[in-house]
Specification:
Strand content of chain A: 25-35%
Order of helices and strands of chain A: HEEEEEEEHHEHEHEEH
Structural class of chain B: alpha/beta
Number of strands of chain A: 11
Largest sheet of chain B: 5 strands, mixed
Strand order of the largest sheet of chain A: 5-4-9-8-7-10-11
Largest sheet of chain A: 7 strands, mixed
Order of helices and strands of chain B: HEEEHEHEHEEH
Structural class of chain A: alpha+beta
Number of helices of chain B: 5
Radius of gyration of chain B: 16 Å
Strand content of chain B: 15-25%
Shape of chain B: globular
Oligomer: heterodimer
Shape of chain A: globular
Number of helices of chain A: 6
Radius of gyration of chain A: 17 Å
Chain lengths: 195, 168
Amino acid sequence: MRFSHPLLALTGLLLLGTPSAAAQTGSGTIRAILEGGPDVGQRAPDFSLPWANRDGVGPIESPYQLASDRGKTVVVAFYPRDFTKGCTAQMRTFAEQYDSLFGPDVVLVAISTDSVQTHGRFAASLGLPFRLLSDPEQRVSKQYASKHPDGYNRRTIYVIGPDGRVRYRNLRFNPLDPKDYADLRSAVRSTTRRS
Amino acid sequence: MTSGFRVAALLLGASVSGLGSSAAQESGLTVGAPAPAVVVNDLDGRPVDLGAYLGKKPLFLEFWATWCEQCEELLPELRAAQSRYGDKVEFFGINVTVNQTPERVRQYLETRQPGFRVLYDDQGVSIRAYDVPATSYVVIVDGSGKVAYTGIGGAQNIEAVLRKVISN
């Protein structure tokens, strides 16, 4: 199942340009690191994308712009698809544990390739208290090393501080792993405490 | 395998693994691989060593949640499989714990009675070891301790897989 299209996956990865793959050996184990995107301490690239929330599609003339939230802690979550199992688990958890994970002073936006219309239905179905951004051409996901060559986003998380710099990132966020949520919670708290 | 090919294969496997994990439905264990031996707590916080069962008899593992609709859809098939193979197979339901409490799990068990032995993986140990892509993910391990089947969703023919595993 995992290696069903290995050549396609490798070709796509090589064509990505920004992300690259590296293999390291040590202690008899092999691990791979996907590189690219702003690392911790680097400035998060600005972007502007159309959005929807549980109340409907946002005005076309008022896309969400990252730079407009300078001075706040912003969490940017890239995810594959609306209405899929893993994404539903992740977004439901974000919604139901919003106060614990993020709190009132943090801005959370989640980005996939789905249309704003699909986003509106997905957000309404789960009652999501945050915006879903639409990036069908994966322009932003490429900047953030979150572009899968098969046309959807990889599941990644960035925590951006009030100064616009990345404070934390997880390029392999697992929506079912409690540790990943705990790490995210710690990163958000650490960022908001410092600001 | 030449060294060049080995490196290419490592890069390829590692890359696809990384991407696959992000793209939820593409991850998971490979059939034929040894099942990871992990220790996971039960609902009362007592450690259960799955490694103690590996290689002795077949195992059924379902990674589930109270809010998982596909897990609910799979319940009739699960009950039928338990009724038929309960004495030959160890059935475990590993609760993924994300967005639920032990109390919520206990309430669910009282009303739905899935029948499997429930583990509560609040450390995510088995989630990582089994590379679980989503709830309703089922892993069936044969009597030698190797992964015989992985599947996901509410429509899985568990009985047929167990029949084959037991007959081998």
